[in-house]
User: Which sequence fits this backbone?
């Protein structure tokens, strides 16, 4: 699904990613862990196509297509979804309006027809119920006045509605209380599928108790410095990142 | 909510469409002689078969106008207007006065059909299910072509007719109110209008009556080298309610055309008037050639206690817009509202805002103004909130936001606030920002194209105002917003 | 404009209602004749401020006896830091004065300035400051005004951007029939400039406070972050506050905002203070002092800040019995 090779990314003056390589086969869920400032969000923004993240070397492909040649919305239409570490507030635009517009735009880009209003509403209601979200929240300005946890839930709601091929979850667990963590994890697990891959960025093992990853990678100082099975997360939880400190 | 989604759907349909109302109706017309002098005023007055008092009133206004200077304080610039190079009266060649729809020139009916204005009552009745009906006064250059639903309105006691007809049929009412809100010599353009006004609508809603449908006047400038000087007078008697909408369009021409209207609203005790404008005069082309010079004086007198006037405007057209719909809050606990969207693109210039004059105790006002500038345009909010010593406990809330799209446009905010008593409470907030790149990216990450993302964010920006419009017009206005900003990003 | 009128003796040169920027400060209407220029000054000493303040340049300006015009310049060399206290002192009678200040700041220079202006209730007094800044300059100013028959403190700052910062604050406490006008114009000429303004005023009796603040952002001055707030309290039904915060923006990548509120003293806060045992007059004074005190709190130099707080507290005292 996702194949990143020797990726170098510069933000402003600084090189943040320094030759990062990573592959996520179709249908797998991979976790990325790493110390603060390691470049995890930089990786997710780069994959999603945020401007200001300058790729100076390397490649990133989605199902064999060059991702880096596309702009943000083209990547989304290809199926890239990023759950933001800090979701934006957009006053005056209700979440429902926003998601429906996004969904139809993606469908159009893929040459599919628009979703009908009743069908959309039905789906939105069902997904909101799954995530135990108050449907009325979806009628308010997107994320305006929402708590940190509510914003994260809203991200997962959007992911469910947009049904991406590759979901990148950047610290979706931070800010969630214990119950919310469970609900959100269930939501994510429900979206696991043979034709969908996920990249789960987190600081905490406990999320991985809920979302069992196929592989765990350690990102430190701009590169993947170690990879392993789920047991690697437990090891990190216990020993910290010390032994990877000088890896770069 | 539905409207937002709707817009996104319609933006596609609208792509490539620029100014959709720019056609000319080829019809034989009658003009006054070119230029302005007392004889032209007599000619207009005679055409309308006016009583002597009104002719005298016009001539006095003309004399005063000669002594006034054109105002120069607004942030707009334009070459000097040659007032002698205009026609002050133009009308389709037919007899003046009301008529049944069957008698109206088919070319005119076709024109209004093309503009999407329903003039046949049965067509409106057979229209979209659930859509509320509304009565239309259709003004073509200097005369009213037809007014619909008059009979049904009359049953409720509501008078809705061209002003010229009201002068003949209801002279006492007209005489009692005309010029009492905007005095003849109020300002240069109002004074000119008083001398030469040719058509407009008259509305009277009797005590305790809730007008059974939306009223609207559709102004169309057609003839070239012709100014439009309409005058509208709306009176809501004690406890009455009326919602009125004004729409306007003009052909695309290389010349600038002058539009100097006056609107007077009077709300007596417990009365409420809701006045909405969708202003879509021809804005000129991308290089700033042509377009309407729109100099308008609109004022409401909230004369009675607990009276309320609400102005809502969507200003997308005109090369120059100069207008400040205002409320004189004379009655105790009277309420004034102003909701505005002003969009300028290309070389358009808009200097618009409101005045809320608090005279009565407990009077309240609310101002929400949203300006969007794109291209090489300039948009200025200019407002006054004035609280007089007797207006104890007066309240005002003002929110002015400007959005800039592009490097070559400008946005200004000039609010005057005068507080003259110790129990008033006034709040004013203003922001100027550009379209947020973060928000754009966020929307694009979820798959919207840049154009769509801009539409979406702009809709969010103007939403507070759009929802003040009557439902039927909100959708229309939203499409206009989309079209006005076309080509502003990319 | 006032200086020109004083120099020429020509009353028609006085600014007044005809001039957009002077609509609420009508000098033409206030002066039926222009007094002759007279270089003599009234005695200093009306001020009770201790003059020895650590690291602060204190400048005292005496009132003229008739008409007086003064021009003062100050240059802060590149990289230098200065703290200045300008005491514009009161005289007696119907004097008319025009004070003009020109400040030039070198690259990376910083200047913190406190202006305390006192005038006779019959005086007409205008102090205008023009500030030229270079890159990475820091200019911070606080103006505390007590009014006159007509009093205006006007400040113009040309802000080159370049990570420079400007703070223009002010407070006015006016009683009797006093008038005070604080007018500011900040022009952002280059990229990435920041400016902040907080002006708070309280008027009692038949006093009149005027605030005009214009933020201009010229084309190319992207990244500008400019904010301005004016808050006024009116304590009497004969008092008045007129204000005009203005934004004039010719660049698109900006964040500019202004806020303007005018109202009475917060009744809830008054009640809260009184419920804890403060008598009404004291509670009022407390709230008024806190309200304008926030302006003083923004002053960085501790000695200067203390002087500002003392000045404001003394003025708040003067409102006693006149609040309603
Ligand atoms: N716009 C920017 N300009 C310069 N440096 C930046 C910018 N954005 C991020 N950085 C730097 O890049 C490095 C990586 O940041 P990033 O946000 O990717 O870290 P992270 O691994 O997601 O950390 P966290 O665990 O805190 O989320 C940090 O040192 C950060 O300060
Ligand atoms: Mg991060």
Assistant:
């Amino acid at each position: 699904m996702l194949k990143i090779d020797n990726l170098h990314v510069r933000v402003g003056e600084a090189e943040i990613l320094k030759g990062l390589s990573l592959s996520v086969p179709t249908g797998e869920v991979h976790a990325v862990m790493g110390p603060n400032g390691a470049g995890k969000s930089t990786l997710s923004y780069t994959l999603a196509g945020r401007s200001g993240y300058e790729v100076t070397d390397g490649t990133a492909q989605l199902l064999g297509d060059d991702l880096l040649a596309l702009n943000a919305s083209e990547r989304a239409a290809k199926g890239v979804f990023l759950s933001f570490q800090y979701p934006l507030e957009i006053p005056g635009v209700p979440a429902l309006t926003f998601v429906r517009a996004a969904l139809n735009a993606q469908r159009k880009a893929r040459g599919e027809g628009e979703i009908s209003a009743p069908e959309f509403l039905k789906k939105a209601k069902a997904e909101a119920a799954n995530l135990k979200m108050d449907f009325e929240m979806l009628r308010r300005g997107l994320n305006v006045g929402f708590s940190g946890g509510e914003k994260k839930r809203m991200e997962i709601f959007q992911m469910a509605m947009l049904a991406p091929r590759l979901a990148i979850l950047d610290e979706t667990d931070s800010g969630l209380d214990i119950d919310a963590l469970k609900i959100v994890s269930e939501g994510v697990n429900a979206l696991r599928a043979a034709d969908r891959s996920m990249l789960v960025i987190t600081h905490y093992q406990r999320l991985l108790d809920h979302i069992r990853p196929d592989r765990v990678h350690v990102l430190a100082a701009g590169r993947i410095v170690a990879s392993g099975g789920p047991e690697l997360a437990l090891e990190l939880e216990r020993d910290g990142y010390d032994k990877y400190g000088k890896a770069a | 909510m539905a409207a937002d989604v709707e817009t996104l759907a319609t933006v596609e349909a609208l792509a490539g469409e620029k100014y959709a109302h720019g056609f000319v109706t080829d019809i034989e017309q009658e003009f006054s002689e070119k230029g302005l002098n007392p004889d032209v005023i007599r000619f207009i007055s005679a055409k309308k078969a006016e009583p002597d008092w009104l002719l005298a009133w016009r001539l006095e206004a003309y004399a005063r106008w000669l002594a006034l200077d054109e105002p120069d304080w607004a942030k707009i610039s334009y070459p000097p207007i040659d007032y002698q190079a205009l026609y002050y009266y133009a009308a389709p060649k037919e007899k003046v006065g009301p008529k049944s729809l069957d008698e109206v020139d088919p070319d005119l009916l076709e024109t209004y059909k093309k503009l999407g204005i329903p003039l046949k009552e049965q067509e409106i009745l057979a229209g979209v299910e659930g859509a509320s009906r509304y009565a239309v006064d259709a003004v073509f250059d200097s005369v009213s072509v037809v007014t619909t639903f008059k009979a049904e309105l009359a049953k409720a006691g509501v008078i809705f007719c061209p002003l010229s007809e009201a002068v003949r049929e209801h002279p006492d009412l007209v005489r009692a109110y005309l010029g009492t809100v905007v005095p003849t010599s109020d300002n240069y353009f109002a004074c000119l209008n008083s001398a030469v006004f040719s058509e407009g609508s008259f509305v009277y809603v009797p005590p305790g009556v809730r007008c059974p449908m939306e009223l609207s006047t559709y102004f169309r400038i057609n003839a070239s080298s012709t100014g439009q000087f309409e005058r509208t007078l709306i009176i809501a008697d004690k406890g009455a309610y009326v919602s009125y909408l004004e729409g306007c369009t003009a052909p695309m021409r290389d010349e600038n055309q002058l539009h100097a209207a006056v609107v007077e609203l009077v709300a007596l005790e417990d009365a409420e008037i809701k006045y909405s404008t969708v202003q879509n005069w021809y804005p000129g082309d991308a290089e700033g050639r042509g377009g309407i010079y729109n100099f308008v004086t609109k004022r409401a007198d909230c004369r009675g206690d607990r009276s309320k006037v609400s102005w809502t405007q969507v200003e997308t057209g005109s090369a120059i817009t100069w207008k400040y719909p205002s409320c004189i809050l004379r009655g105790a606990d009277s309420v004034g509202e102003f909701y505005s969207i002003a969009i300028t693109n290309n070389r358009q210039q808009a200097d618009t805002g409101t005045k809320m004059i608090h005279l009565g105790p407990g009077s309240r006002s609310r101002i929400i103004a949203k300006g969007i500038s794109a291209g090489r345009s300039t948009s200025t909010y200019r407002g006054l909130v004035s609280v007089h010593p007797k207006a104890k406990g007066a309240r005002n809330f003002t929110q002015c936001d400007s959005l800039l799209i592009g490097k070559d446009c400008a946005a200004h905010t000039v609010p005057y606030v005068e507080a003259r008593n110790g129990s008033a409470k006034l709040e004013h907030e203003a922001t100027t920002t550009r379209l947020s790149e973060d928000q754009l990216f966020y929307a694009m990450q979820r798959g919207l194209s840049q154009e769509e993302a801009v539409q979406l964010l702009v809709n969010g920006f103007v939403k507070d105002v759009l929802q003040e419009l009557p439902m039927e017009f909100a959708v229309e206005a939203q499409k206009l917003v989309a079209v006005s900003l076309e080509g502003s990003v990319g | 404009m006032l200086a020109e009128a004083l120099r020429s003796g020509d009353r028609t040169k006085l600014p007044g209602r005809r001039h957009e920027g002077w609509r609420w400060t009508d000098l033409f209407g206030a002066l039926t004749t222009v007094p002759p220029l007279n270089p003599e000054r009234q005695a200093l000493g009306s001020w009770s401020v201790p003059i020895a303040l650590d690291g602060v340049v204190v400048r005292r300006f005496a009132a003229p006896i008739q008409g007086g015009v003064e021009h003062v310049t100050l240059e802060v060399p590149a990289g230098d830091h200065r703290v200045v206290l300008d005491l514009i002192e009161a005289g007696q009678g119907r004097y008319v004065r025009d004070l003009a200040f020109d400040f030039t700041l070198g690259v990376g220079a910083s200047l913190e300035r406190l202006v305390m202006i006192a005038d006779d209730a019959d005086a007409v007094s205008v102090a205008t400051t023009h500030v030229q800044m270079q890159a990475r300059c820091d200019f911070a100013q606080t103006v505390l005004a007590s009014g006159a028959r007509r009093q205006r403190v006007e400040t113009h700052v040309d802000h080159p951007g370049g990570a420079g910062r400007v703070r223009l604050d002010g407070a006015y406490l006016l009683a009797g029939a006093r008038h005070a006008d604080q007018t500011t114009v900040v022009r952002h000429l280059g990229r990435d400039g920041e400016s902040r303004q907080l002006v708070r005023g309280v008027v009692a009796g038949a006093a009149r406070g005027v605030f005009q603040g214009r933020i201009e952002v010229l084309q190319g001055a992207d990244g500008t972050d400019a904010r301005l707030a004016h808050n006024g309290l009116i304590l009497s039904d004969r008092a008045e506050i007129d204000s005009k915060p203005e934004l004039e923006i010719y660049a698109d990548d900006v964040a500019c905002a202004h806020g303007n509120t005018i109202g009475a003293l917060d009744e809830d806060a008054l009640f809260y203070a009184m419920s804890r045992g403060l008598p009404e007059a004291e509670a009022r004074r407390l709230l008024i002092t806190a309200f304008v005190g926030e302006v003083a709190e923004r002053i960085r130099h501790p000695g200067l800040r203390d002087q500002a707080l003392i000045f404001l507290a003394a003025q708040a005292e003067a409102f006693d019995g006149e609040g309603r």
